[in-house]
Design brief:
With about 290 residues, the chain is an alpha/beta fold. It is built from eight helices and 13 strands. The strands form four sheets. It has a five-stranded mixed β-sheet. Helix 1 crosses helix 3 and helix 5 crosses helix 8. The longest helix is centred in the N-terminal third of the chain and has 24 residues. It is globular.
Length: about 290
């Protein structure tokens, strides 16, 4: 079986773009080249992966399984390249919603004093691993569990939860908000990278309805328009002020544990220093 990475990339691009034409544009190739790559992949595997029509493509049952593995292979290749290119001179910290909240600037300034030749750069990546998987980040700031044996994590701090409501919402008049105060409203929840789930409320006592969102901007836009309310980390409130959105401390919601994560088999240089510095900024965990 003679498989090539360009064939796997072509398959993923076609599925994500929806057409061979759009996939070719995304890859910077001709449509014919993309079509040949996918055809070669099907020939090498001895199976049809895509159903083709004049307007659309869709995966076959086999194609669905191959796509998942193709993405995994490409992720691993990206990681391999990141290992080889370890000579770069900055430490990149990924995050999905907020970096380290009010501690971010202090950590960066202290880091610059201790490691003047290695800038600490924060990069936003709206994925569960906050950029670790595709090599965007060397370390990730996580606020929800990462069940992936490839990664190691360390607890570095705790954060309060805040309610987010429109500035003209009745709850914006309160100094603190309880979980029960939110149950009559639609709750905006990002179940992919957010920190809120219906598990925060007792069984049968959750919000009236849920609005699924993807990412901070969509979440904030819904709340500013008074189409939903939300619950998030205090770090989000600090790093994402938005006209029309008021953040209020939650008085009865459990705190959020903040963790740093990295590739288990490839910890970045100065990792211990970053963990120590972050713990110093957050203070005791207990």
């Amino acid at each position: 079986m003679d498989l090539e990475l360009r064939q796997l990339r072509a398959l993923v691009a076609v599925v994500e773009a929806g057409t061979f034409t759009d996939a070719a544009a995304a890859l910077g190739l001709s449509q014919a080249a993309v079509s040949r790559s996918v055809a070669a992949l099907e020939a090498a595997l001895g199976a049809r992966l895509l159903h083709r029509t004049t307007r659309h493509v869709r995966l076959t049952a086999t194609g669905t399984q191959v796509l998942a593995r193709a993405r995994a292979v490409l992720d691993e290749v990206t990681h391999l390249r990141r290992v080889v290119e370890r000579s770069r001179t900055e430490l990149r910290v990924g995050y999905a919603w907020a970096a380290m909240g009010r501690h971010t600037r202090r950590i960066q300034r202290t880091w610059a004093g201790r490691h003047p030749g290695v800038p600490l750069v924060f990069v936003q990546h709206n994925s569960l691993a906050a950029g670790l998987t595709d090599g965007t980040a060397d370390v990730a700031v996580l606020r929800r569990a990462l069940e992936d044996p490839r990664f190691e994590t360390a607890a570095v701090g705790l954060e309060h939860r805040c309610a987010a409501v429109a500035t003209d919402h009745t709850l914006a008049r309160k100094r603190t908000v309880r979980l029960a105060d939110l149950t009559r409203y639609t709750m905006a929840i990002d179940d992919r990278t957010g920190t809120t789930s219906l598990g925060l409320w007792p069984a049968g006592a959750g919000p009236a309805s849920v609005r699924a969102t993807r990412g901070t901007d969509e979440w904030l836009t819904l709340i500013a328009a008074d189409q939903a309310v939300g619950v998030t980390s205090e770090a989000t409130a600090h790093q994402n002020p938005r006209p029309g959105v008021a953040y209020r401390r939650m008085s009865d919601a459990p705190p959020i544990e903040v963790r740093l994560a990295w590739w288990r088999d490839d910890p970045p240089a100065h990792l211990d220093d970053l963990i120590t510095l972050t713990r110093e900024a957050y203070g005791p965990l207990g």
